[in-house]
Amino acid sequence: MAVIRDMIAPFELYQPAGVDDAVRLMDQYGDEGWVLAGGLDTFDWFKDRIKRPAAVIDLAAVDEIRGIAEGGDGGLDIGAMTSLTAVAEHADVQSRYPLLAEAAGLVATPQIRNQGTLGGNIVQDTRCWYYRSGWPCYRAGGNICYASTRRAMNREHCIMGADRCVAVNPSDTAPALVALDAEMVVASSSGERTYAAADFFVGPDIDIERMTVLEPGDLLTRIVLPAPREGARWYFEKIRDRKSWDFSLVTVASMLQVQGGVIQDARVVVNSIAPYPVRMGAVEAAIRGREPSEETGQMAGEIAVEGARALRHNDYKIALTRNLVKRSIRDAA
Amino acid sequence: MAERAIGTDISPPDLHAKITGRARYAEDFHAEGMAFAKLLLSPMPHARVRSVDTSRAEAMEGVLGILRASELPRPEQGTREGALSDEPLYEGAPILAVAAVDETTAAAAVEAIRVDLEPLPFVLDPLDSLREGGPNARTDGNVPGEDGPTSLKWPDSVFDEAGPDRLPMGEPTAEWAIGDVDAAFGEADVIVEETIVHQSVTHHPMEPRSCMAYWQNGKLFLHGSTQSTERTRGPVAAMAGIDVEDVVMIGEYCGGGFGSKIAGVPIMAVPAVLSRKIGRPVMLRITRYEENYIGRARAGFQGWAKIGFRSDGRMTALDLYLVQDSGAYGASDFFTAGTVATASYQPENMRFRGVPVYTNTPPRSAQRAPGGAQIVAMLEPVVDKAARELGVDRLEIRKVNAPGHDGWLGPNQGPFTSAYVREALDLGGELFDWEGRRQLSGHREGTRVTGVGMGLSPFTAGSNGRDGLLVIRPDGKLHVHQGIGNLGTHSIADTARAASDVLDLDWDDVVVVWGDTSKHLPFSTVQAGSQTTHAHTRANHAAGEAMVGLLQELAALELGGSATDYRVADGRVFRAGNRAAGLSFAQAAERAIARGGKFSGGEIPEDLHDVTKGAVAGLAGEGLIAAAKDNYGQPGAVFTWVATFAQVELDVETGEVEIVDLASATDCGTVIHPRSLAAQTNGGVFQGIGMAKSQRWVFDPQWGIPFTKRFYTARPPGILDVPLSPRFAAVNEPDPHTPVGAKGIGEPPVGAGEAAYACAVADAMGGLCLCRTPLTSDMILAELEGRPRPYGLLDTHV
Predict the structure, then answer these.
(1) Ramachandran area for residue B380 (φ above 0: left; ψ -120 to 50: alpha; else beta)
(2) How far apart are CA B644 and CA B637, in angstroms?
(3) Which residues of chain A lie closer than 8 angstroms to B40, CB-CB?
(4) CATH topology agreement for domains B297-462+636-785 and B464-629
(5) N or C, which end of chain B has less CB nearby within 10 Å?
(6) How far apart are CA B461 and CA B421, in angstroms?
(7) Residue range B272-329, pLDDT digits in tens
(8) A330 at B interface, C-beta within 8 A
(9) B297-462+636-785 domain in CATH 3.30.365.10?
(10) Is the ipTM beyond the 0.95 threshold?
(11) Contacts with A7 from chain B: Cβ below 8 Å
């Protein structure tokens, strides 16, 4: 059968007004249903006719999961349908969670941030171009990874966390939310569940066809941020080929709790080097009790890339990860 | 006196429509009963169609017809590209088209068609094709020969001798020489030698090449996106197999061409012929995905240069070898590249060798300074390397080698019409403060190292012998008929100013007529080679002088006296010294119509092109009509030079480069429209920087399939990737051999920006030239860290 791209195939459109209705529709359609938030990931799939769901459940009218509110215990509660612009420009996010404001503000372009949602940015699919071109790879239900074959073009792919699939998680906000110890609230017909952000993302060793814990029928509704920590320093940097409308080559997000010039606690998270945002536990442990200096950063960087394995074209990601982790400690402010 | 229009900023007549969204592009037109077409693209990089089963598609309700390659007029030459093909030569090559009542049905019908393809050998890398036993991109060969493609293979020893990082150089297909390079190398004080790669990149105009066609009474009406309106009729007529008189080409706006839409693009044949076949108008909307395949691309080079210098910086020998990635249907960039190199450096001795090799990648065409941008970006960093070895300042070494007015061009060493190159270099150097900035070279702050660099880029910028056509109508306005297209450069307006200035007429009294060949448009240049400004200021100047003559003659007949007693200014022809004794333009138009004959198109100058004669005949009786051929002569090649200077900061921990300042200066003759000139220059500079910095055209080598099919993967630069306020200046000295003094500007800025960036990055790396594009942050970081390179030095399509 010949292939047509850039032309959305017909589907049934549902526009529920509440989470309950949305979840009911998701149950009704199961694998044949597709949840639409901002559409930035969705419409690429639809235009290429690679994903052709029977029904699209558009969350645009589900107002109860849009907006930013005070959470319990001095935290913040962000609806999954809140636009990335609203997140990046919100006064409380900027003052209390500048790491998240920075991450959201570096997504793509102003137009995409106006349309794209925080929830959508978190649960977006990988951008591996073999997979996105509709090739029948592991992640698409096939039995090969084209991106790791001998002559494959894999500059943007994994240096760790691979298991058959070498695609990376492209989200800018995901590593920030892991570093902030955020929680993800998920609704389904069987009730509401909450996941620590670090546990929300899954690698191919757990499920090769998904990027998160969400299964059909599950809807990410809210992102809950705990109260900001005292004396926290943060760092976020996204390396990309262009300064706008680009996915990251490597992104680092770190939170350091520094007292008396010494790191008391840390979260160091790197994205776009694995199929999920990588929380660098060994780095966090190693820098505890040390000054956030060049030397500590250097050590942290070396630890961060221990065990990293380059594919044919992405050895640079090892050096880049090492250097960004170093900076995220040395230059955290 | 009316204010002289040339040299001032104006709002072009298409501006409001563009910024308010009222401008209608090809895709915005609809016709009664219009059907929609969709293309079936080849899923393989090289294949032969064994059979096609369209039965399921044809049985679908709403399907109106299917067009196959065999139904199109055969291209005249073996390598000429047709709109459809039964031997697709690249992945994405259109095989057939389906028309249906709507696009959804057409798409479903394409999906229902079964094509049985025989896979054929394919090749992406020219060097792979030149190896013994390597695949040929075409069944008839891999390089152009005298009678069509032929096969060229180099012995293994050529490759073994070169090793992995040096260009193998076997037998070339093209070669020329000036003097004796080998002898000159023997006497050179410094010799530098590099293998250099320039990537192929797709054009990515904002407007894809959508087109809509319908037929009325045997005439083909085609709405399309084209750089050149009048000159598009001929190619479209050939595509449809009809006479040129039977084509009406409509294209008022062109959303970017960059050389990919010069005069009729092959895909126009699909709606033209399919519409005739099904008896209904046909709209073919080309998507971004399809544009990536059929939207043309710049030819890439794998090259090698060995350059000898005297101790004072004078280039005594240039030995150049270029292997060109010609795509499936060929390109001539490589040959232009050799010529352009002479316009930069005037080497005392030179040898040029080249091999253009077909590959199974999308078709190439001119892309803004084809060949020129590549060679400038490739050679300028090598010249910098020599300057460092010689201890000669990098601005100085360019001045030492730049041509003056007595300079020469190419293998025939013909003259230029003018060359204020050193003046442009000095002007740019002052604007940028080269003296001060070069002290910053290598300065490190934190993790950021400063680099400064510059690029000098020449390119062809004019032609002659076209026609101008002016009508003064009873509304009293001067109507300037423009056969040229509106490709976004303002040239439809700017070249008209040559006529209004000759007539000493206020710009508000000028009406520009363009974009529809039924509006009687004169013979014009194609909008390519940056010819338009030069060629059509001349043609409109000639027509303006003819109009002055007619006005004087008419006034003498109407009011007495002799023609020489009369002057023309401010919309009147009047007796010298007595403005009241004369005719307004409105009156002149009425009298011209009443008198007929030569005043209103009844007699037509013999030396006009047939197209112009037809246009004049069509306008006859509508006003005072002046048409004239540009007979001013052109004693040499018309060239423009742009010098761009860049300051960058390289982050040594990430490989990222930020451009902190850009300044450009040009010798493009007289400045017609300062704001537009700055926009053209800066836009070209940015486009060039994109090729060096972020833009890519990645293919999977195993399957021969491109991945950078969308803007976000192809990564042309965005506005945040360049400084917000690039600076610009022009020498503004008239070319003495053209009446208005203006030369073109469209193309040379590209190589200048690209080279300035490459040189500045090399400078930040302590003079280390990686000598390839793209030069992305991963490559830079790998080099700085001493880690394995992401790609081989000769790799293409990364």
Answers:
(1) alpha
(2) 22
(3) 2
(4) yes
(5) N
(6) 14
(7) 999 999 999 999 999 999 999 999 999 999 999 999 999 999 999 999 999 999 999 9
(8) no
(9) yes
(10) yes
(11) 38, 103-104, 107, 287
